[in-house]
Amino acid sequence: MNKVGINHSRRWIGEAFGMLRRHPVPFLLMGLVYTLLAQLPWLIGFFIALFLGPALMGGMIHAAREAAAGRTPRVGQLFHAFQEGDRIGSYIALSLPVIGLVFVMVAMLIPVIGPLVASLQAQAGGSGADAITYEQLRSILAQQISATPGTFFLLVLFYLLGAFVVSMLTFLAPARIMLARETAFTAMRSSFAACRTNLGPYFLLGILMFLIALGMMTLARVLGTVLPPALASLLAMGPFNAFVALVVFATHRSMFGDQTPSQEQASANPAEKAPDAHTFEA
User: Fold this and answer.
1) Does residue 49 lie in a domain region?
2) pTM of the full structure
3) Residue 49 three-state SS
4) 211-229 b/e with 16+ CB inside 10 Å = b?
């Protein structure tokens, strides 16, 4: 594992842009397919993004490695993790920190807004209404924030810290599973250790990526004035999602080097492959 300077964050973004510029068609199409799957209705897209998103991200990282090796990336490599099959459990396990953070935040919010929600539900039942509305929930939250601002400030601070820790666990984990054939929890430990060792450049990278994401969301809103919102979001966030995968690859290569074999090298030297124990075990 390498310790790099803070300016490497800009270098990672530059490398990702360069790779996207050299191979625009396959990576943009992969980003569009990824985003389209994540936008499917009836919570299907949400669960795809949560549980299978890391595997799709791993496919784009594999394509980035192929491009870095001088080969032409292909759109079908987006599903490379599913073609191998032995690492799907590890990719799915990367959703556990996100799920854990959500459960913790919900558990912390229930004592704060629970009594008001129960009171409003009782009033709605007495008036013959079926359930409280979204606007009523927003009103409840606004009342509680104005009544106990310090509590909500601590909750927001805790959430931001928790989200930052989760990001450190999961940022490089798809790359470690795909490129180093690590299991889920080993990959998360590697990702966390690398981000902690390079906390300065990682934090700056997060700020830069947030600004880029903000710009793409603004573009989506602009496009939404002339296009259907779903299509506008697809056209803006598709390239961004592909760009994220390329940034992950560039960051991983900088922090861990090029010691991981390509798929062709791994196939030519099966005895050197790591065990295929990609389950939910640590």
Assistant:
1) yes
2) 0.84
3) helix
4) eeeeebeebbeebbeeeee
